[in-house]
Amino acid sequence: MVEKEVTERYEKLKKTVNHHRYLYYVLDNPQISDSAYDTLIHEIIEIEEKYPELVTPNSPTQRVGDVPLKEFKKIKHQVPQWSFDDIFDYEDLKKWEEKVLRMAEKENVADKSLSYCCELKIDGLKVILTYKKGQLVSAATRGDGEIGEDVTQNIRTIQSVPTELTEPMDLIAVGEIWLNKKELARINSEREKTGEQLFANTRNAAAGTIRQLDSKITASRKLDTFIYDIDYLVGGELPDSQEGELELLSKLGFKVNQDRKVCKNIEEIQKVYESWIKRKDRQDFGIDGLVIKVNSRQVQEALGYTAKSPRWGVAYKFPAEQVTTVVEDIVLQVGRTGVITPVAQLRPVLVAGSTVSRATLHNEDEIKRLDVRIGDTVILQKAGDVIPDIVEVVTSLRTGKEKPYQFPEFVSACGGDGRIERVPGQVAYRCVDKNSFAAQERKFYYFVSKKCFNMDGLGPKIIDALLENNLITDYADIFTLKRGDLLALPRFAEKSVDNILESVAKARKVTLARFIASLSIPQIGEETARDLSDKIGSIEKIRNMTEEELQSIEGVGPISSREIVEWFKDKKNIKTLDRLLAQVEIEKGEQNSKGGKLSGMSFVLTGTMEKYSRDEAKDIIRGLGGDVNESVSKNTTYVVAGENAGSKLEKAEKLGVKVLTESQFLDLVKV
DNA sequence: CTACCTCGAGCTCA
DNA sequence: CTCGAGGTAG
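ok -> structure tokens follow
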């Protein structure tokens, strides 16, 4: 039994330390010296060493985990993590507001005087913090919005994240993790000394730091946070506005960015936006725009969500950073289906946090539209902050030596005589010979990829080696690779070869949809392949169908059906197909169109089931011929509601759609 | 698209 | 140590 004085002292010490942590890291207003703070921490450590039973995971001494993790566990979000749609200018803003007003009118909430809460959009990574009875229990990355990664151990090391709230409520709070510019410079100068790669920007550094399995490394880099949203709250009152949420978050002990403004109309928003464009670079953290939210919670709820994003908010992005660089060359790339894409080779240039040395020019028409010539200086930006995009040519810098680009009539990478043709009805050119080496290479990459045969460990380089050594010329060859042949290649030793052979063997069984996709029929990707598989059910039927018959299938239009028929007319393709069919086993997985007991039914899943993950449940439904959709409509047959079902359940009730519990669902799909 | 982390494997040299 | 693959993030 620990003496009463000790526990009292211990609790007081913890409280004091936490208070000063808050003053220092959250309010940025320290009231005692670092050394005094350290002394307090030290006393806590001493007590804990003597009385280990006192230690809780949220003690200030436990911020750094001493055992590195093996891996990050997946965490399913209790509340789906949406992201806002982007807008880029005042026009977009106006359109968005009109939509909001129209919707509000329809939902009879328009009489509330509408206002908008404008916050900074911090350039970092999203984090979802879960508290039970006021104690931090988990922290997750966003992931795909449904499932993220458990990074609790790393988040604990961030001093501005409270491990205990000021009130014992159940809460899910959402915010952004970021790294300040000075800290990036410090980390990079250390990495320079040790010869490590430097981080390209604060966001990448923050992302890299969060993905460390060893939280000691995370702790050594001073990450920071801004928390901006409450997703869930029990044990307290949810404020009726976004601004109120921010205030509550502050009160609970979170670090909240104080630069927010409630605007009454979009003119005011625009003013805030323009003033931040001028000021954004002066901050310690990266800002990539404003987030505009309808302030009233009641109106937010009335507006609801589209399939993709909340209707009640948008991300108003700052204009993309533009730089100039020189087009050193224009080269042609041959894709999987023989389509030729011109790509500008650029003098490498740093833009929006990464070095860009190439940008797609899409097609001949785009080259003409831009009138881009080799040697031209061009303005470059990243579309949606991701994909490099040439905006325009700086014609005033022309010297006259620039070479206009002539789209060639022959492309050597197309193999054979190199002839190319314009695809009827499209802007793209493609190789007449659809099996050129370049196209073949791409097809093989795709064939083994996750979307198709999903052969683990067969990346592009391995495929290249196999192609170059003529070990594969046809898809079927992958399945008949010989151990000895592989071992003869450089960098292929026992272990690698065994792994390759094993993953090939494992991949022999495929679903029909994956099989169809793997053929690289032009226009037939993952989606259409699934439609074909669901509605037709066998490769033998597909190969004998006419264009008209194919077109009657939902999701297959005149262009795709033409491509399909043409593909199956080609003798080479047929030979490839038959050889491949002899090697693989297409999983029957219950035939869908007629045999499937769920055919014609449409399902929406919500909440968590005990027995199956969402993906497994989807596979089961599709396997039985049913459709799975993301949002509930009057065409939905059943909504399957697991634990913690959310808004989809409410919507189902509103529309009178039948709702199944997990056990009812299991009964229905039982074979 | 680019940057980052982590892992397994092969190669190289002590 | 280096390379390739695979995964994650924005």
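The first strand of chain A starts at residue 74 and ends at 76.
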